[in-house]
Write the structure tokens for this entry.
Amino acid sequence: QVQLQESGPGLVKPSETLSLTCSVSGASIRSYYWSWMRQPPGKGLEWIGYIFYNRSPTYNSSLESRLTISVDVSNNQFSLKLTSLTAADTAVYYCAREVPIGPTVGFDPWGPGTLVTVAS
Amino acid sequence: SQMTQSPSSLSASVGDRVTITCRTSQAIDIHLNWYQQKPGKAPKLLIYAASHLQTGVPPRFSGSGSRTDFTLTISNLQPEDFATYHCQQSSHTPYVFGQGTKLEL
């Protein structure tokens, strides 16, 4: 059974950098694309970006200038760094596996999510 | 591409049949997924490729559509179906989600 778990600070100050890690169990980090999503309180989901272990990451252009996604193969985990935080970055952050499914791809499973609040 | 999901909220009763729609600004063939999200939980993949039920999803859920217009239908609503539903285009990056539909009792 594949499981993902996000970890990182729950509170970050404005202008600082957010660092989150997603630990993967039950699947090799080498075998899939891995994504980050976020969901501001009471709002919809936003895809942040994804990575495959031996390829350059792909980012949502809305965040690209502040974003770095990386993979740690030895620890079977991947990470997100988002710089220059503002209150607008307050959200629940999710990591998820992208799986080929039928003729398309989907996100399955997801981590439980971690709430990140940007406040002084 | 833009995703327009409607309605944003929907009131229904146990046993009802409801339909949620998702429209994209560009054609995406059948690359459209639906997710169910319960309060405080992560989304779960419900339907993939517009009409295919993920393993374990009861047959009262169905999806249809192609190109730009898609629907999620839930027949004979059960208490556990009251949740928020999200559509997502899986055709190309950046992947985009709809705004979500909150299905309330």
Q: What stands out?
A: DSSP finds no helices and eleven strands in chain A. The CA atoms of residues 37 and 47 of chain A lie 4 Å apart.
